[in-house]
Amino acid sequence: ELILRQKQYEYYGEYLIFNAQFKIVKLKDICTVNQGLQIPINQRYKENGKNRYRYITIQFLKEKQDKQFYIENPSSNVLCNKDDILVTRTGNTGDIITGVEGCFHNNFFKVNCNELVIKRYLYHVLKTKHMNIKLKETASKGTVPDLPHNRFYELEIPLPSIEEQKKIVTMLDKFSEIANDLEQGLPAEINLRQKQYEYYRNLLLSFPHQN
User: Fold this and answer.
1) DSSP string covering 159-204
2) Is the pTM above the cut of 0.85?
3) Beta bridge partners of 35
4) What is the dihedral of CA 179, 181, 183, 187, to 10 degrees?
5) How far from the centroid of its chain's Cα atoms is residue 202's Cα?
6) How many CA atoms does the CB half-sphere of 95 hold within 13 Å?
7) Is the pLDDT higher at 130 or at 204?
8) CA–CA separation, 13 and 84 (whole Å)
9) CA torsion through residues 159, 129, 175, 58, sign
10) Which of 150, 55, 155 has its CA nearest to residue 102?
11) Which of 9-23, 141-155, 157-171, 178-192 has the least mean pLDDT?
12) How far is residue 79's CA from residue 54's CA, in Å, rounded to a whole number?
């Protein structure tokens, strides 16, 4: 049930964003990126303290709270908040991360949006299967794939008006919440979420596309 709902969420996200005749822009027109920080192991702290920030690495994301390191007095341009968008640059190139806070590693870059795009809208766009394929295709080929900033900037996405972006964000956030809530596995809750899911699915399908 959960896997099915998640696949349907992905499908309707793609439908809502890419099947409309929205203006197409390059990422360089709506955002900039900040490269992360590479810190030697001997400069990483195992305990939190004043002016120290969790070090967000690929390993940290895999192990969650089990293994953490902290960086002392990092520059502000390598810090991220929970609503920020991180893109994996090397390794699992093109993975989109949000909901973490701290100092991010050189394997990531942070996406900074300008006034033309809502950060949460861009997050949903970059999370689609369509964009994941594009990001991986754009990465340089080699033993360890790498996503250069200049190639990232050249990728194109649909950009509706701010008001339409807000509507899309509201629907996809709600749709994602319903799909994830099914993990609770309680029959009554699942029944309720099913009804909510159907309601928002219908909203997605009836969303007025731009002509």
Assistant:
1) E--HHHHHHHHHHHHHHHHHHHHGGG--HHHHHHHHHHHHHHHHHH
2) no
3) 109
4) -100
5) 24
6) 14
7) 130
8) 20
9) negative
10) 55
11) 178-192
12) 10
pLDDT digits (tens, 9 = 90+) for 121-139: 999 999 998 999 999 999 9
Strand order in the sheet with 108-113: 31-35, 108-113, 85-88, 96-97
* Pairing assessment for the beta strands 108-113 and 85-88 based on DSSP bridges: antiparallel
| 208 to 19, 78, 130: CA distances (angstroms) | 11, 39, 21
Return the structure tokens found at 57: 């690495």
* d(C-alpha 118, C-alpha 15), whole Å: 19
Q: What angle do CA 198, 201, 205 make, to 5 degrees?
A: 140
Task: Determine the Cα–Cα distance for residues 62 and 85; give it in Å rounded to an integer.
Answer: 17
Closest CA to 15 of 155, 198, 172, 179: 172
Both structure tokens of 78: 């390598």
pLDDT of the residue at 4: 63
Inter-CA distances, 159 with 18, 26, 30, 59, Å: 10, 9, 9, 34
> Tell me, what amino acid is at 132?
N
